[in-house]
Write a structure and sequence with these properties.
Elements: E1 7-8, E2 19-20, H1 27-35, H2 40-46, H3 52-66
Length: about 80
């Protein structure tokens, strides 16, 4: 499993949502910015307290959450 050392969860910060290093910057914000066409360079310029590794790990975390697994269910017939 990947270690997400830059992703934090604190009920007192953004309601416990996945954030970057305890800041009020959520993983979902970063993923949304990228999904809407913003480059890493643009994000770093807009949020100078972020680091390139923060953005990389936010994307890795989102990808990890989105992994699909199929778990077949056994159906018992009576």
């Amino acid at each position: 499993m990947i270690e997400f050392d830059r992703i934090s969860f604190d009920l007192n910060v953004m309601g416990g949502r996945a954030c970057i290093r305890g800041m009020r910057i959520t993983v979902s914000l970063i993923v949304n910015l990228i999904a809407n066409g913003m480059s890493t360079e643009e994000i770093l310029k807009a949020y100078p307290y972020l680091e390139r590794d923060d953005i990389r790990q936010a994307i890795q975390y989102a990808a990890w959450l989105a992994e699909e697994s199929i778990h077949p269910l056994e159906v018992a017939f009576a």
